[in-house]
Design goal:
This protein is of the alpha+beta class and 76 residues long. It is 24% helix and 41% strand. It has one domain. Strands 1-2-5-4-3 form a five-stranded antiparallel β-sheet. The longest helix is centred in the last third of the chain and has 14 residues.
Length: 76
Amino acid sequence: MKAEYDKETDTLTITLRDARVKESDEIRPGVIADFGYDGGVVGFEILQASKVVEQAGEWNEWDERHRRQSHEGRSD
């Protein structure tokens, strides 16, 4: 899993798995789900994330820390 916050677009992107996206649907206002060719969910995008997720900017820090710990064999 990977989470990335883009300050410029105020978008939080959560990638659940590495797969090609076949289609995307706005499942709720401001929430877009990406679906793979197998029909499964690949990830989500949250628009205007700073209004929805209180600490959206901290996602990049969390993601980097999580990846580092996973590489070392640990997790939060």
